[in-house]
Amino acid sequence: MGKREKGGFWVAVSAAAFYPLSWMAKRDYRHAEKLPAEGAALLVMNHVSHLDPPSDAVFVHRNGRVPRFMAKDSLFRIPVFGKMLAGSGGIPVYRGTSDARGSLSAAHDALREGKLVLIYPEGTITKDPAGWPMWSRTGVARLALENDVPVIPAARWGTQEIWNGYDKKFRPFPRKRVVTLVGDPVDLSAYRGRPVTNQLLREVTDLLMGRVRSLVAEIRQEPEPAEFYRASAKRDTATD
User: Fold this and answer.
1) What are the residues whose beta carbons fall under 8 Å from the beta carbon of 116, sequence distance 6 or more?
2) Which of 22, 48, 86, 204 has the fewest beta carbons closer than 10 A?
3) Phospholipid/glycerol acyltransferase domain spans which residues (predicted)?
4) Do 192 and 141 meet the contact criterion of CB atoms below 8 Å apart?
5) Which uninterrupted H or E stretch holds 199?
6) Which CATH code of 3.30.420.40, 3.40.1130.10, 3.40.50.300, 3.40.50.20 fits the domain covering 27-220?
């Protein structure tokens, strides 16, 4: 691992809080060397538990980078945690409001400044009954297409065994294994320069999440589903 990226006071506070949380699990990091050691990058991940952000933050931080999370704006209003999230460079995501495009604007700025932006395109923990990545929002595609930066798919599996967000059960013992697997950067050259339409954004989003889903399948050693689970028929837009 090279020189660690500077983070500042709130990154140090977040690390002090998140590292102990990560010790609840047996961590298994695979192909972490595929994370760029410096410069801008878009890290695209699945979302299975409310423990994912602390787990993923520690993974990225242990590899010398500071993750800038794109997270629901409501999380920024949680006492203490919201301060940690904002102070460490988190990007609030406003859905269904006039500020929705501003969320992407802040992420664009972070990438242009050479930061590593971490995004969960599903927008919430998956509702797929089997835990596979579900149908995702297309903001990730816009970020990937409008910024010439490495787009890195990654998957993490096991946090849901510790804290299941739907049955609200917390099972820290016995210690579970949490696997994080990083994939190769996705070549988007065939998509760049084309008119940015909703169809193109959907195609790129599904491509990226398909790579993430394949990584989940590799961890689970199971065949992946052919389609993404859809919890509802909500309209998809470029700012989702």
Assistant:
1) 35, 36, 40, 41, 42, 43, 60, 65, 66, 67, 68
2) 86
3) 41-159
4) no
5) helix 198-220
6) 3.40.1130.10
